[in-house]
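User: Predict the structure for this protein chain, please.
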Amino acid sequence: MRTWLRHHQYAFLVALRRLKVQPFSSLSNLLVIALTLAVPVLGASILLAAQPVVREIPTSPEMTVFMKQNSTLEQAQAFSQAVGKEFQAELANVRLVSKEQALKQLQSNPSWTDALGALPSNPLPHAIVLTLHETPDLVTRADSLAKTLQTRDGVDSVLLDSEWVQRLAAILSFIRIGLWILMAGVGVVVIATVFNTVRLQALNQREEIAVARLVGATEAFVRRPFLYMGALTGLLASALACGLALLALTPLNKALSSLAQSYGVQLTLSLPEFSLLLTAAILVAILGALAARWSVTRSTQY
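Assistant: Here is the predicted structure, written as structure tokens:
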């Protein structure tokens, strides 16, 4: 056991020494990997900050049916009663908003007073607001009902009030998939960078490795310092990436604060949880070690 620990201690110290021997090259490699890693870290920060906001948005299961402009109030009332009876099992409430009521609501807003005063007549249609029951398949049912009502006589258009929330959820899903693809690209960058670094180190020490083999050094003993070098590169680059992402969050939060306040919400970007960052760093270190093993095996074959 002591021998095993001594071998690993020796390999670790050799890896550190090799990183110190060429500081500029080591720092360049660390910066390349760190900058690449910082991008998905920032993306994850934005995604994690946006998800609670989306969950807190009230998604009332309502749709609004706008009647054609030439429809009378009696026709709108008859249509609302017919819809209420036909879809009684799906609807929690049916409410008719006449064009006169809609106009009065707009006129109560000072910003619309001048514009409405310049119109010769009421341009608003009669509207019927339908409230649906909350069910797991609400989105599917709402879409189906909207398409059905759109084909009815006298209906001009149907508006789903939660459409923009669904679009926002779709955008977040797109970002999530993009982050997974980006992380796969980051893995390729880590492997390529560590592979080339270890390859150069192995080629420079090829004669030293050959002599070590001649005096009885095992393949594991030869590879071990390079494996530690790859793992250390991954860990140091991950720590540097977190630092760069944290620095970038400061100006981003300042810009986001004014934007969020204009919408009346509180939104702050922060790094993902420490456990997630640690898991990601360990995965990057494992990738670095695997890339180093692959590189030293290919570069020291005789």
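The first helix runs from residue 2 to 21.
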